[in-house]
Amino acid sequence: MKFALLLPVLLVFVSGGEIGLRSYHGYKVIATATTTQAQYNLLKTLLMSDKYDFWTNPKFGGYTDINVSPALYSELTATLTEAGMEWTVKIDDVGKLVEEERAQNDAIIRAGEGRMDWAAYQRWAPTIEPWILSLNDSPVATVSVIGQSYERRNIYMVKVSTGPLPNGDNKKVIFIDSNIHAREWIAGATGSWMLNELVTNYENYQTILDQIDFYFVPYLNIDGYEYCHTNDRMWRKTRSDHPTSTCKGCDPNRNFSFFWGGESTSSNPCSDIYKGESAFSESETVAIRDIINTIKADADIRAYITIHSYGQYWLLSWGYTQGVYPEDYPELLAWGRASIAALQNVHGTRFTTGQGADMLYGVGGASDDYAKSIGIKYSTTAELRDTGSYGFILPPAQIIPTAQETWAAVQVTANTVLAHV
Predict the structure, then answer these.
(1) Which of 9, 90, 400, 421 has its CA 20 to 30 A from that of 27?
(2) For residue 143, which phi and psi values (nearest 5 degrees)?
(3) Where do runs of H (alpha helix) occur along 251-301?
């Protein structure tokens, strides 16, 4: 039976107020390594200054990618050199990559004449939303509205199920969301490809679907995603307004209640890692919180996977700070290792797995830790391709291979869920 949750379907769209695309010509992505605590602390200070666009957060003993404008390039490189830090230019002209991506994408979309496919990064109103609604025609898919974005776009969830267990009980659940960060286009494309694969070819996954229901929110931060297309390719946050600032948006992956306001968060509304005025201040994060609670009232959510980019990591809890682990961490690590092994077998892409803060940096208010904190055993942030050659500007030709390998890891998650009571 088809149903709608929480809100009626309202096809309301608000313009992003287009004023022309922001140019990134001359911007460079610098990769710099830290070898001392002082160097690491310097990068954290630069991050919190909000002068630079950190594509990856500071990492002790590893590389950090920073997108820097032409005006600040000399200042940044001099600061790094003075601190004894090695650095190299990873991307010489971000603007050129953005233009190439846009040209490739637009040409593919024109040739596709509005059809939903995964040869390009699609747009919301003309293509993605109608495709999501069309999934209601499938015998295994049910489309629901779980909330609305700040700009009043519907946030959709798709349940993929062959019905309850023979005894009438609900099945175990795997919950997947993607594109919580606007500029991570590969995340939404991967989430929607996996959804399409499961709905279109459900007969091939009968063994899994006999025992597991899947819930997908393929595009969570819709306002930000559209703003990337119309105004600023590097936009990360939501598009909410603030009473005390002209800067817009909140980092939705700093807006969940678990250790809200903790590490790698900012109280500055202009910051890319702004935590919000309060936990769950954003309609997008409220939608995830409320629907997870609704599902949990009737069924056992055994896994939560949030799709991000980039870096090629399968990040495990706890991620809010280094050196803290849940009691079942050995089981989580075994699951992570099995997942990335299956992923690598598809196209040879190498991921690494482990506690998120140990591998990268502590993050307060993140969705994966929140999911773990409310009893969802297998929780991960999957940071997809690549390792920085393209960063967030992954070419459209890599969408399907990325999605295929990620789907292999998700199937390992399903088998892990089935193997454990």
Answers:
(1) 400
(2) -95, 130
(3) 283-296
- The one-character DSSP state at 169 is P
Is residue 370 within 8 Å of 11, Cβ to Cβ?
no
The pLDDT value recorded for residue 168 is: 83
Given a cut of 70, the residues of the chain with pLDDT beneath it are 1-20, 421
pLDDT of residue 5: 39
Tell me the three state secondary structure of residue 90.
strand
Superfamily of the domain at 28-92: Metallocarboxypeptidase-like (3.30.70.340)
What's residue 404's pLDDT?
Answer: 98
Residue 43 near residue 58, CB atoms below 8 Å: yes
How far apart CA 383 and CA 376 sit, in angstroms, is: 19
Q: Which tokens go with 47?
A: 């991050």
Q: What's the Cα-to-Cα distance from 319 to each of 279, 369, 371, rounded to whole Å?
A: 17, 6, 12
Q: Enumerate residues 6+ apart whose C-beta is below 8 A from 197.
A: 403, 407
Q: What's the rounded Cα separation, in Å, for the pair 66 and 76?
A: 10
**Pairing status of strand 141-148 against strand 154-160:** antiparallel
Architecture per CATH, domain 104-419, reads as 3-Layer(aba) Sandwich (3.40)
Single out the catalytic residue among 151, 282, 383, 405.
383
SS3 (DSSP) at 156: strand
The ranges assigned to domains in the chain are 28-92, 104-419
**Predicted confidence (pLDDT) per residue in 219-236, tens digit:** 999 999 999 999 999 999
Q: Which residues contact 25 (CB under 8 A, 6 or more apart)?
A: 93, 95, 96
The reported pLDDT for the residue numbered 10 is 30
Interatomic CA distance for residues 187 and 181, integer angstroms = 9
- Identify each DSSP E strand in 297-346 by its residue range: 301-309, 313-316
**Could you tell me the two tokens for 373?**
């904190």
Q: Tell me, what's the pLDDT at 421?
A: 64
Residue 204 DSSP label:
G
Q: Which helix (H) or strand (E) holds 414?
A: helix 399-419
Is residue 383 flagged as an active site residue? yes
Residue partners of 307: CB distance under 8 A and separation at least 6: 176, 177, 178, 179, 187, 188, 190, 191, 382, 384, 406
